[in-house]
Write a structure and sequence with these properties.
Blueprint (H helix, E strand, L loop, with lengths): L4 H10 L4 E2 L2 H6 L6 H8 L9 E3 L4 H13 L4 E4 L16 E4 L6 E5 L4 E5 L4 H9 L3 E2 L12 H7 L6 H4 L2 H4 E7 L5 E3 L12 H5 L8 E8 L1 E2 L3 E9 L2 H13 L6 E5 L1 H7 L9 E9 L1 H17 L3 E2 L4 H8 L6 H5 L4 E10 L3 H13 L4 E8 L6 E10 L7 H18 L15 H23 L14
Parallel strand pairs: 2-4, 3-4
Antiparallel strand pairs: 1-2, 5-6, 6-10, 7-11, 8-9, 8-10, 12-14, 12-15, 13-14, 13-17, 16-18, 17-18
Helix pairs in contact: 1-4, 15-16
C-alpha cells in the first residue's frame, strides 16, 4: 500500500531511517500501559495503528515533524517509553507517533552546580547511572524509573518515591527546551530561581503533550547520600498513622520516604512480617550519617509518643529491594479481573474522611475482590493516598464498565472531601471528565484558552487532559 502523503513528506524530509512504518513498531507504540487499552487488545478491539512512528535524533527533527504535521493538520502523539497508566497515549489511523526515546543522550553534567542536562528520551535508570559515575544522584525515583523518560516525568508532573525529602519533578526542574505547536522553540534559562513573570517551565510541566513537545530538561541533582537507615512501626489504625506522619513532618523532620499501609496492603506486601489487623508505617532516612542518626532517633521518639510500636526491622531493606517489582495487568485480565491503583491527595484534616469515603464506596461494588490503600508522599500540609482495587464481573463483557465504576466512585469520593483527583500520574483519558469539577469553570476555561492560543490547529495529542 502506498504511504499516505504526510508519511511520504516525513520520509522525504527526515529520511526513511527515522520514519518507521513496519507493523511490529506501529503495533508496539499504539498506546501506553493503561488497563483499558490492554483490555481492548485482549478483546480484539484494540487501538488502531498510527500512520507512522517518527524517531527523531535531535530537536531539529522534532521541529520538522511538528511543522509538517501542522501544515497537514495531522495529529501528533508524543511517546516516551509507554509506562503511563492513565491513557495519555492512544494513537489512531490518522496520527503520527513521535517516539522521543530515540533522543537519549546525556548532554551535560556540571558537578560544581549540581545540574544535569538530558535529552527528553533518556531513560530514568540511565540518567541515574550516568550521575552515579560522578558520585551524584537524581533523588527522583518513580516506581517506573526503568520504564520511563526524564521528559515524560516533566510532561506528566511525576513524583518519585523519595519525594518527601527531595521534592517532586517540578522542585528539581531547573530548565527545559520544548518545540511548540507552531514550530517555535521554547528555551528557559537555568538559574536557581527567577522573578521574570510567570514560570514558563510550569506551562509544559504536566501538559501531557497537549501544548508542545519537550526535547531536553535540566535537573538539579544531589550528592549520593553517605548512609541510609530505616524506621518501621505499626499503628492500631489509619488515623493514628496519619497523625504520626503529620506530627513528624510538622516538627521539621523530612525522612526521604514515609509510607503507611492499611491492614490489607500491609498483609499483602509483607506477609509474615506484620501482625494481623495492624497498620504499617515505614520511614527511610538518608544523608550525612550524623543527620540520619538524629532524624531516626527523633522520629522514633515521636512515633512512640503517639502510640506506635516498633515493627520488624527486616521490612525496610525488603521494601528497598522489592519496591519496583509489580505484577503485570495482563495476567489478571486473562483471568477476567480488572484492577488499578489510583493516587489522590488532600490536606491533613481530610485524610481520614478521604480514606473512609473511597473504601466505603468500593465496598458495594459488585464483584469487588480487593480494596486497600497506602500513602507514599508526605507534606507539611497534607498527604497522598494510593488506593488499590481488584474486581471481577460475572461476564467478560462487563469488565470495562466495572473498571470505570470503580474509578468513578474513587474520583467522586475524593472530590466530595476536597481532595485532588491526581497526585502524580496525571489526567490522561481516565480522569479528564472529572477535571472540570476540580479546576472549576474558570480553571478549565483558562486551560482551554491556553490550548487554543498555543495549538489552534488541535494537533498535539488530541483527546488527552482537556475534557471534551
Amino acid at each position: 500500500m502506498e504511504p499516505s502523503p504526510i508519511v511520504q513528506r516525513l520520509i522525504q524530509a527526515l529520511g526513511p531511517e527515522l520514519v518507521l512504518t513496519d507493523r511490529v513498531t506501529l503495533k508496539d507504540r499504539r498506546h501506553d500501559y493503561w488497563l483499558l487499552s490492554q483490555l481492548e487488545d485482549l478483546q480484539g478491539r484494540g487501538v488502531p495503528d498510527p500512520l507512522c512512528v517518527v524517531a527523531p535524533k535531535d530537536r531539529a527533527d522534532v521541529v520538522t515533524t511538528v511543522n509538517l504535521c501542522r501544515e497537514s493538520l495531522t495529529p501528533v502523539v508524543p511517546f516516551g517509553l509507554g509506562s503511563g497508566v492513565v491513557g495519555g497515549v492512544r494513537t489512531g489511523p490518522g496520527a503520527v507517533l513521535l517516539d522521543m526515546s530515540a533522543m537519549a543522550r546525556v548532554l551535560e553534567i556540571q558537578v560544581d552546580n549540581l545540574t544535569a542536562t538530558f535529552q527528553a528520551g533518556v531513560r530514568g535508570a540511565d540518567a541515574e547511572a550516568a550521575l552515579a559515575h560522578c558520585g551524584l544522584t537524581l533523588g527522583h525515583y518513580p516506581q517506573s524509573i526503568d520504564l520511563s523518560t526524564v521528559g515524560g516525568w516533566v510532561a506528566t508532573r511525576s513524583s518519585g518515591q523519595f519525594s518527601t525529602a527531595y521534592g517532586s519533578i517540578e522542585d528539581i526542574l531547573l530548565g527545559l527546551e520544548a518545540v511548540l505547536p507552531d514550530g517555535s522553540l521554547l528555551e528557559t534559562r537555568c538559574v536557581p530561581r527567577a522573578s521574570t513573570g510567570p514560570d514558563l517551565k510550569a506551562l509544559l510541566t504536566g501538559s501531557e503533550g497537549t501544548l508542545g513537545v519537550i526535547t531536553a530538561v535540566t535537573l538539579s541533582v544531589r550528592w549520593r547520600p553517605e548512609t541510609r537507615d530505616f524506621n518501621v512501626f505499626t499503628a492500631p489504625g489509619m488515623e493514628e498513622g496519619f497523625e504520626t506522619q503529620r506530627y513528624i513532618l510538622q516538627s521539621g523532620w523530612r525522612p526521604a520516604v514515609m509510607r503507611q499501609y492499611d491492614e490489607a496492603d500491609a498483609a499483602r506486601l509483607f506477609p509474615g512480617l506484620v501482625n494481623e489487623n495492624l497498620v504499617l508505617l515505614l520511614l527511610v532516612h538518608e544523608g550525612p550519617s550524623a543527620a540520619v542518626e538524629a532524624e531516626k532517633e527523633a522520629c522514633s521518639a515521636l512515633a512512640r509518643e503517639l502510640g506506635c510500636t516498633p515493627g520488624d526491622p527486616a521490612i525496610g531493606p525488603r521494601w528497598m529491594e522489592e519496591r519496583n517489582h509489580v505484577p503485570t495487568f495482563e495476567e489478571f485480565l486473562k483471568e477476567g479481573i480488572v484492577l488499578d491503583t489510583i493516587e489522590v491527595a488532600a490536606l491533613w484534616d481530610r485524610m481520614g474522611a478521604l480514606y473512609r469515603s473511597v473504601m466505603e464506596s468500593w465496598k458495594t461494588v459488585p464483584g469487588i475482590l480487593y480494596r486497600a490503600a497506602h500513602s507514599s508522599h508526605g507534606y507539611r500540609s497534607g498527604l497522598n493516598l494510593y488506593f488499590t482495587f481488584a474486581a471481577k464481573p460475572d461476564r467478560p463483557g462487563e469488565m470495562a464498565s466495572l473498571y470505570e465504576n470503580c474509578w468513578e466512585r474513587a474520583m467522586e469520593a475524593t472530590l466530595d472531601v476536597g481532595g485532588t483527583i491526581s497526585h502524580h500520574h496525571g489526567i490522561g483519558r481516565v480522569r479528564k471528565a472529572k477535571l472540570e469539577r476540580e479546576l472549576g469553570p474558570g480553571g478549565i476555561g483558562l486551560l482551554r484558552k491556553m490550548k487554543q492560543v498555543l495549538d489552534p490547529w488541535g494537533i498535539m495529542n488530541p483527546g488527552v487532559l482537556i475534557p471534551d
